[in-house]
Amino acid sequence: MTDDSVDEACACLRKALIETRGLDRREFLQALTKATAGSVLLAPLAAVASRTTQAAEQPVTYFTYGGAWKQAIASAFFDPFTKSTGIPVQYQEPYIFAKLRAMHEAKAMQIDVVSVQGGEMYQAKRLNMIMPLDFNVIDHSALSERQLRHGNAIGAHMLSHVICYNKKKWPGEHHPKSWADVWDVQKFPGRRVLRREEVWVTEAALKADGVKDSEFYPLDVARAFRSLDRIKPHVKAWYYDNSQAQQLMEQEEVDIIAMMNGRATESILNAKAPFEIVWNEAICEGGVQGWIAPVGCPNPKGAMKFLDIVGRAEYQAVFARLMYYAPQNPKAFDLLEPSLAKLMPSYPENEKLAHIINFEWWADNLPMMQRRFQQWLQS
Question: Which pTM does this prediction carry?
């Protein structure tokens, strides 16, 4: 892919983002689908694609979660990538890091590009699973410093685990504003739902117990589970699937729920769920996410071409419009409406209030914490 073709594709996406401001996600997705199919909105992309030898291109294989995530990733990144380069994309799912690691250890890698996050990023680095980035293909100047914090990975999105409360129950200023409030069933009585996953709920339990960020790590595991013991009798349900959390919110079967910011925003904006996100003490993964090309990938050339686009502001802004997870490239905010930008974890005012997870600690302790958490749930 030539530099000119990348610039052309980015210019087209910028045009699409600007011309569709004010549209909701469904309408934006419809416009984007037409654009990547060669509509007037992105007509120059068709000319770019015609300059490639599509039939000769080896596909890029992406290891993905399914459902809404796969649809948004395809619309934001892979469909425009194929349109502008002629390189087809094929998918393997569902994404499981243990399977990616097994491919690496067996020297039988089937994946060209994948997004890893959390403790998996540190595991991948320690196991030498990540190919070096080729900056002869990837335009370094299009990326921010924070996107390259993990060396050979390119940061694309950022997410947070946030408190959401029902505005019908608490319509004024008296509403939950912290994890301590979520745990305070006397001050804020109501139906509570928490995520059935050790990382997010353990960190929330320590925040609720008053642990300062400066004293957070190493985690005081015993203290965390004592805090969880206090809230456990008051939790109506423990969910794992994000769509279940959205259903509970949209059907108003809960008064306080902790969930991923993107899913919460989707339910609030598109399903009109009467909830508000609390950005104070949002438990943020802090940019510990990156797109990588695994060592031994079958199409390293195609992988690097994809990595050249995934961190660019235009593509990240499209993904933010579709999935409501924040861009790591700060230039993407210039392409978002201010009202939407303020719903992103990496929006400066939100990030100042966040609690940032130390996933290096979790990479060392995850198996132990998983066992402990499951035992606790069953006790």
Answer: 0.89
Buried b (16+ CB within 10 A) or exposed e, 43-76: ebbeebbeebeeeebeebbbbbeeebbbebbbbb
Name the amino acid, one letter, at 311: G
**Residue 87, C-beta contacts closer than 8 angstroms, at least 6 positions apart:** 52, 54, 57, 58, 59, 60, 81, 302, 305, 306
Angle subtended at Cα 77 by Cα 290 and Cα 277, rounded to the nearest 5 degrees: 65
CB 317 within 8 A of CB 16: no
Residue 132, number of CB atoms within 10 A of its CB: 10
User: How are beta strands 160-166 and 256-260 bridged, if at all?
Assistant: antiparallel
pLDDT at 205: 98
Give the C-alpha separation, 5 to 86, whole Å. 11
pLDDT at site 40:
37
Give the pLDDT band (50/70/90) at residue 8: confident
Q: What is the DSSP letter of 176?
A: -
Mean pLDDT of 150-157: 95
For the chain, give the number of residues: 379
At 160, the pLDDT band (50, 70, 90 cuts) reads very high
Angle at 42 between CA 41 and CA 45, to 5 degrees: 165
Task: Specify the pairing of strand 256-260 against strand 192-195.
Answer: parallel
